[in-house]
Amino acid sequence: MKNNKTAIKKLFKEFTLMLKGFGLVDGQIVAIDGTKLKAYQERIHELQVIKQELKETGEKQLCVTDPDAKSMKNNGKHEVCFNVQTAVDSKYKLIVECDTVNDVNDQGQLSNMVKETKEIFHDQKTTALADTGYYNYLEIIDVVDESTELLIKPQKGKQNKVASGFDRTNFSYDTINDRYICPFGYELPFKWNGKQNGKEYRRYTCTNFDICGQKESCTSAKGGRSITRLKDEEVIEQITENTRSQSDIYKQRAAIVEHPFGTMKRHWGYTYFLTRGLASVGTETNLICLAYNFKRVIKIKGVKELIRLFRDRVRTKFLCTMFIRVKLYKSRFTACLNKQLLDRLTYGGVRGRGLIPPPTRLVT
């Protein structure tokens, strides 16, 4: 495994493509989720050396047995772990993509997982399901396209606390005039553009704040009530509405993603890694996911049927390869064949041995 990290990752992807060819994954609904697996650890020595290393690197935490591992919240307590990401196809709950990172949460993983999954299914229509932990504005905008539908619930508790009836959801947006209308009919016209943490937004501020009788209930800001609208907020609003209207599909997410993790962690007891370093741990993840898929396919199809599918695929791949070779070298084959035919018809005249057939020798 040490010297075959790239090959093992390619093997996992090739096996996934085979599953697609067998009709075992279709990419119509793919659920994305992450889990924490503990890093390999041993007795910690020389605390002074560790303290000095933290001081030099500026890091806040360090695992002495595996510098790539991070302290993460796992099952209600903090442990030194890696974050394992998977994308699971809904048809037979097979893993179509996996990755291992040392980020303590999932907020930066959505775009990468969806894009890697789309490499398997290309422009096919895919519905991706993700939980609230993946909710990140920039990641969401980067994911959604014509062939990808995302269902994800927004995070709660992000809005400022205001009196009942004055929540942001009670303000309607006028797309024609680019303004907000409050519940009492007052306008909040556009004021200025801004950018924060990579997010571009537009600011809308109430112009009738001084004469409004509800200003004390609406906001405590001296300048009046303001609303911030993100650049692509209509996309976010559409995703929120789609998630709400397709709640029956979104509810499948937990059952889809928990099948592989439940099998590996509870049934197999695979709760920690045996290797060190992010690259080696990633390879270990590919192997365990490959083992899960293989055992799962055997259970679905049976050994004999799986052998037949493998044989058919090898035979088809061999014939396709031969066809491609013949197509690529068609001109060479044709020229060689023509030369041999002309040689026979002209008794070797093409090669300069004369156009007249050799005389027949008489035996006396």
TrEMBL record:
The lineage of its organism: Bacteria, Bacillati, Bacillota, Bacilli, Bacillales. It comes from Salipaludibacillus neizhouensis. It comes from the Bacteria. Pfam families: DDE_Tnp_1_6 (PF13751). This is Transposase DDE domain-containing protein. InterPro entries: Tnp_DDE_dom (IPR025668). Residues 181-297 form the Transposase DDE domain.
